[in-house]
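Friendly challenge for the regulars: who can give me the structure tokens for this chain first? No prize, just bragging rights.
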Amino acid sequence: MLRSALPGRCHFCRGPAASDAPWCEACLVALPWNLPACPRCAEPLPPLTPSGLVCGACLSQPPSFVRARVALRYRDEVALLVQSFKFSASPRAGAVLLALLERQLRGVEQLPEALVAVPLHSRRARERGFDQVAWLAERLARRLGLPLVKAQRLRHTPSQVGLSRKARRDNLKGAFSVEQVLPAHVAILDDIVTTGATCEALAQACQARGATLVEVWAVARTPRQ
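First reply, four minutes later:
Bragging rights claimed.
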């Protein structure tokens, strides 16, 4: 109500924002949209790639999740936004990321029956003092009217930075568990998808608890490493 009654400022250019969003139309259009991208894993694909084309990695080794909805690429303004939220706990950055997530889900014909956030290990959560994915998941689940299912990270895995795709998968094998029985259709929420190894490991844990259709939601995607 306040946003519609009072003029807001665009998070990116500080100019007048739209009445119902924390950005102006020009800055929204200029964001690094993840197009074209593989519909299965959201891997950024070369320009002029036909829409709906599945990438070679998903053809040779299909992931456990059926699709990934990741509207943006992790660079430029989006990278700065995620870093501000993740490492500085900026509430303004978090609100913008939440709004971007909601925007990318407009028009989805069938929402999942539950949302599962990628969890931080308790040790890393204590070190950082903030779980950015849990923050987003709690608010997104509430706004969409979905139950939020808690997953657990069973072990503290080494940093994924600098690891190859195979090494990331090996690093995360068996790293997650879900205690309760899940409905058939669930969505995994993360902030950034890099190789998809984290989402793959959590998707397998969800399938072990009864999910038969798992999809991935995230703010941004990096190129496959």
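The chain has nine helices and seven strands. The chain has a mean pLDDT of 88. Your move, everyone else.
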